[in-house]
Amino acid sequence: MEASVLRAKNLTKRYRQGETWIEALKGFTYDFPPGVTAVVGPSGSGKTTLLNLLAGFDTPSEGEVHLAGHPLHALGEDERAGVRLAHAGFVFQSWNLLPTLTALENVAFPLLLKGVPRRERTERAQALLAEVGLERRAGHFPNQLSGGEQQRVAIARALALDPLVLFADEPTGNLDSAAGSRVLELLVRQAQGERRVVLVTHDPEVAARAERILRLKDGALVEIQERP
Amino acid sequence: METFLLVARNLKARPVRSLLTLLGIVVATASMVLFLSFGEGLRKALSAEMTKFGPQIRVVAEGTGTFGVPNPELGPEVLRTLKAHADELGIARLFPAAVMMKGSGFDPATTFLFYGLPEGITPKDLAPAAKVVAGRLDPHPDGAVVGKQKAEQSRLTLGKTLRLSRKIALPIVGIVDAGSGFANSFIFVPMEVVQRALNTTNYSVVLIYVKEGYAADEVAEKIEALIPGVDAQSTTEAVKYAERAIRIGDVIRFGISLIALVVGGLLVANTVMMSVYERIREFGVMRAIGARRGFIFRLVLLEALLLALSGGALGVAAGIAGSQVVNVYTTHAVGLALSAVTPRLVLFSLLVAVSLGLVAGVIPARVASRISVIEALGRI
Ligand SMILES: Nc1ncnc2c1ncn2[C@@H]1O[C@H](COP(=O)(O)OP(=O)(O)O)[C@@H](O)[C@H]1O
Ligand SMILES: [Mg+2]
Predict the structure, then answer these.
(1) Cα(B142)–Cα(B134) distance, rounded to whole angstroms?
(2) pLDDT tens-digit profile of B211-255?
(3) Are strands B230-234 and B57-61 parallel, antiparallel or unpaired?
(4) Rounded to whole angstroms, how far apart are CA atoms B76 and B230?
(5) What is the structure's pLDDT at A1?
(6) Most A CBs within 10 Å: which of B275, B285, B298, as the mutation test of the A interface?
(7) At what angle are helices B76-89 and B216-226 packed, to 10 degrees?
(8) A200 C-alpha vs ligand 2 centroid, how far in Å?
(9) For chain B, where are the E strands, in sequence order?
(10) Nearest to A95 among B281, B290, B292 (CB)
């Protein structure tokens, strides 16, 4: 059996709300196969909580997460950051880019963190921008780009260090349908080889592009739907 | 280097705020440099003065301040004893002088210091570098030779008459550049005239050149042991004394400038803290991508450091300019450039600026690096 890239076991997250505790995620267990996996569910069902735990932004109350062989639940902040840098890419709903950096510099940012020399950084960032069709926007700042263009720059940046997992939380939530479908197209296309794309959405049309759909309800995984 | 670029971008993104903060530090540093430049200027002037003053020891009556004007309280026996023991004490040459001060003593323009020199002694014996500017060097037998500084200050010219007392007056026969701030403020006259004006046969001071190979402060000690009631002040001792006084002044001046520095530091802390709160989401994105806490910490700290250091450098430059303006004034007023910005003062000021940046940056940097990723990502 091949080693799993992204695996969760009995993953549970409880938040304190005044006197009581609410379970935002209840015993989530799943081994993500290669390809696009959509996580769907109504608002408040625990989708973002799940993504936060899978990416190591937060630590679970119980259970385990393994990303690229690293036990994220057992690691400290900085160690998790290191694992993220090496193995994961992110596209959020909005406000993805660093406003004082150009599109090119944003894409090059993970390479900077990794310590890649400047020239190589620029070359690779340029190639990545070309891949998302924005080579002519390299010198623009985020506020000079449309919402769809910003998301595409974010995708280029997420791919900078060739991650095993690409996380996206409502990546098309703020876009009109034309821009949204272009961004979605681009994301889906990144699921090559061993790479997993985890796509959090409440939009059934977006989920329809995934190879499987995980349905959450009140923090519990209630359905796994494989698509042909 | 890369972090530096990120920081510069951020400062540039908020130009007005960054500039105002910078200005605050510039003013704080400049005032500190200017304040402390007085101590440095005094040190420089003092050591220059000491090399220009010929005699290494002055013997005065006990109770005279190190830089005070001595009263005519040395009897002729003091001079006789010194002459008799000159060889064994290590004295190469000695001569007495009588000094008299007229005027307020506060306003230099209306204060006249008459320095009475004995027959055969000229201002050159006091200040070896002395040069005649006009007239002659020797006040004897019945003239006054005015130090260059004094002449300019009180508008004294050749031929004018100077009055020592109601009955005694002397014509100005020479203007001399003694090359020294002190001696240039003297009016050299024959000693006998001063003694007559003071109605005494005493001396105010005996000036001594020490033999080669003898240490001035040791000779001075031996003189004091030999003659009761006198104070033998060596220039080395005077320098030490002055240095102590200057250092006390330094501490006070630094204390005053500290207020400005603290305000400058708070400005930096405030600016950096505000920019931290505005950029929480930005830091969240960086952390999500994989930046460690230390990266964020350095980013914020460097911002404070950059502000403090550039403000400090500009402040030092402004302080140097201010010091030159001050010197134009003090050179005119007292003949000494009282303000000096020495390399060590520059270094000290930059060091203070950097520490300021560090102190002002540490707390915001810590706050920024401690925010949890989800909390940071949650804010827009
Ligand atoms: N930091 C938090 N503190 C308290 N409750 C939280 C926190 N984050 C999420 N929750 C709660 O957990 C549940 C799941 O939230 P979330 O994961 O954001 O759902 P979704 O992304 O599916 O809309 C919600 O009831 C939400 O109110
Ligand atoms: Mg959500």
Answers:
(1) 17
(2) 888 888 888 888 888 888 888 888 877 777 778 888 888 888 888
(3) antiparallel
(4) 13
(5) 42
(6) B285
(7) 130
(8) 8
(9) 57-61, 91-102, 112-117, 131-135, 144-147, 161-163, 169-177, 186-190, 205-210, 230-234
(10) B281
What is the per-residue pLDDT for B202?
87
Q: Tokens in use for A222?
A: 């209630």
Q: Do A109 and B2 touch (CB under 8 A)?
A: no
- CA–CA gap between residue A168 and residue A206 (Å, rounded): 12
Could you tell me the distance, in angstroms and rounded to a whole number, from the CA of residue A13 to the centre of ligand 1? 10
Phi and psi at residue B122, to the nearest 5°: -120, 170
What would the two tokens of residue B316 be? 């030092």
Q: Which residues contact B277 (CB under 8 A, 6 or more apart)?
A: none
Q: How many other C-beta atoms can be found within 10 angstroms of the C-beta atom of residue B342?
A: 15
Select from B115, B112, B78, B118 the least CA-distant residue to B99.
Answer: B115
Structure tokens at B79: 């001079």
Instruction: Using DSSP, state whether B233 is helix, strand or coil.
Output: strand
Question: What number does the ligand 1 atom closest to the CA of B375 have?
Answer: 1
CA-to-CA separations, A139 to A74, A143, A188, B2, B255, in angstroms, rounded: 41, 12, 26, 18, 50
**Touching check for B374 and chain A: CB below 8 Å?**
yes
Distance (Å) from CA A45 to ligand 2 centroid:
8
Mutate to test the pocket of ligand 1, among A12, A17, A22 (most ligand atoms within 8 A of CB): A22
pLDDT digit string, tens, across residues B267-299: 888 888 888 888 889 999 999 999 999 999 999
Looking at the CA of B372, which ligand is closest? 1
Question: ipTM of the assembly?
Answer: 0.94
- Bridge partners, residue A16, by sequence: A21
Contact criterion met (CB below 8 Å) for B181 and B338: no
User: B208 — phi, psi (to 5°)?
Assistant: -130, 130
Over the stretch B247-256, which tens digit does the pLDDT of each residue have?
888 888 888 8
Query: Measured between alpha carbons, how far is B34 from B50 in angstroms, rounded to an integer?
Result: 24
What angle in degrees, to the nearest 10, is found between the helix axes of A77-87 and B280-289? 70
Contacts of B2 in chain A (CB under 8 A): 112, 118
- Amino acid identity at B297: F
Show the ligand 1 pocket: residues with CB < 6 angstroms: A 15, 17, 22, 24, 41, 43-49
Does B278 lie at the interface with A, CB-CB under 8 angstroms?
no
The maximal CA–CA distance of chain A, rounded, in angstroms, is 55
Residues of A whose CB is below 8 A from B12:
100
Q: Nearest residue of A to residue B5 by CA position?
A: A101
Q: 0.90 cut: is pTM over it?
A: no
